[in-house]
Amino acid sequence: MADFHQNGNVATMHNLRTRSSEDLTYQLETFAQTRKITLILPSLYSELEGEALPHILSELSKAKYLHRIIIGLDRADEAQYREAKQFFGCLPQNHIVIWNDSPRMLELGARLETMGLAPAEQGKGKNVWSCLGYLLACADSDVMAIHDCDILTYDSDMLARLVFPVVNPNFSYQVSKGYYPRIGGGKLNGRVTRLLVSPLLIALKRVVGDRDYLDYLRSFRYPLSGEFAMRTAILPDLRIPSDWGLEIGVLSEAWRNLGPKSVCQVEISDAYDHKHQSLSEEDAAAGLNRMSTDICKAIFRKLAADGTIFTSNIFRTLKATYYRTALDLLEAYYNDAKMNGLSIDRHSEERSIELFAENIMRAGASFIENPYETPFIPSWNRVHSADPDFLKDMRTAVAADDAEFT
User: Mind telling me which InterPro entries this protein's record contains (predicted)?
Assistant: First the structure.
């Protein structure tokens, strides 16, 4: 992917293979002396048993520029929390494992519930949001980065390249979004981006007309990547979606709060592979079936907030336009894969497109039928306004868990 094309909407930082990893890391270590960097790792306990995370920790051990690593641990009991603390104990950096299911954290969750500020559902969005709250409570970092714990092709360069644009004091970027080709096992992956998001954005432009927001989203080469970095000054006002629309939601928040000139995308890998979600055709509440609906709703909500009017007729037209557009793009993806010696199962891909088309209608119907739906978790500024002691008490609870279960 070594090119130097700029799309004119968000700046693209390419990897032109002209600078060594050692040189890039050395400069990061220099910047980090005055701009502290914290990495957030949202993790399920089950990921400790996978093949990806041990290698990720080995690579992270090389990142001397990191001030702190915050691990948000979900779906773990007490014994598993103790095991997780030992597992992450190999990290040489200052680090903390937040046990999201501990009695203390659950008590804090109940406190939010009484104020009407609790996240609507469990999941990655809530995990990330809690980690952000702890980071804000520490009040000692200038840059926050986040990536998933299931990256099979991870190396330390990914993090270095991701944070560089927002750590460099000579750059004005507030948000950095990672991108890469999704390939692995001799296949072209990234189904939701290729078969849903890209054709949906094209179809939306044809149906509802030109929108700056659509041009902004279309500028990202991989809008669903879970790797991004931000300057911490923008975190208190950030609203995190609680559903599968997290990545689109964060980009939308950057658009709302900052504008495209403060956002960049950066090439962080030549080949990226991680755990693959199943299509879950029979279960609308699981896998890519659920994910695709949540992503559609996230995009529709943002367009509506900017003044776009949606009706049932518009969603029917959008579905038909999307379907034709997705099939056209599939032909291009198929030929691209073949030229590069990769495989695509066209039957499986077309089944995915058919499901996504139905989910556009499902998401549209949900949007129309539930106009008062508020899937965003409240910003930390709002929580602080309602309960000024909450962040301090969260930090105390995390420290108490860490001390008690050592």
Answer: Nucleotide-diphossugar_trans
Alpha carbon distances (Å) from 83 to 39, 51, 170, 331: 21, 16, 42, 48
Q: What SS3 class is residue 78? A: helix
User: Pick from 108, 103, 104: which is nearest to 118 by CA?
Assistant: 108
Alpha-carbon distance values, 18 to 2, 15, 21, 23, 270 (Å): 10, 8, 10, 11, 14
Q: What does the pLDDT look like over 272-317, one tens digit per residue? A: 988 777 888 887 778 888 999 999 999 998 999 889 999 999 999 9
Rounded CA separation 95/89 (Å): 8
3-state secondary structure 266-278: EECCCCECECCCC
**Cα→Cα distances 67→3, 110, 155, 194, Å:** 33, 31, 19, 36
Report how far residue 220's alpha carbon sits from residue 62's, in angstroms, rounded to the nearest whole number. Answer: 29
Q: What is the CA radius of gyration of the chain?
A: 21
User: Could you tell me which of 63, 4, 71 has the C-alpha nearest to residue 40?
Assistant: 71
d(C-alpha 72, C-alpha 74), whole Å: 7
Helix (H), strand (E) at residue 188? strand 187-188
3-state secondary structure at position 202: helix
**Residue 355: helix, strand or coil by DSSP?**
helix
Q: Is the dihedral of CA 156, 67, 35, 240 positive or negative?
A: positive
330 contacts 195 by C-beta, under 8 angstroms: yes
Strand partners, 41: 71
Centre a 10 Å sphere on the Cβ of residue 3 and count the other Cβ atoms it contains: 10
CB count in 10 Å sphere of residue 36: 18
Residue-wise pLDDT for 206-215, tens only, equals 999 999 999 9
In three-state secondary structure terms, 98 is: strand
Cα 282 to Cα 20: distance, rounded to the nearest angstrom: 48
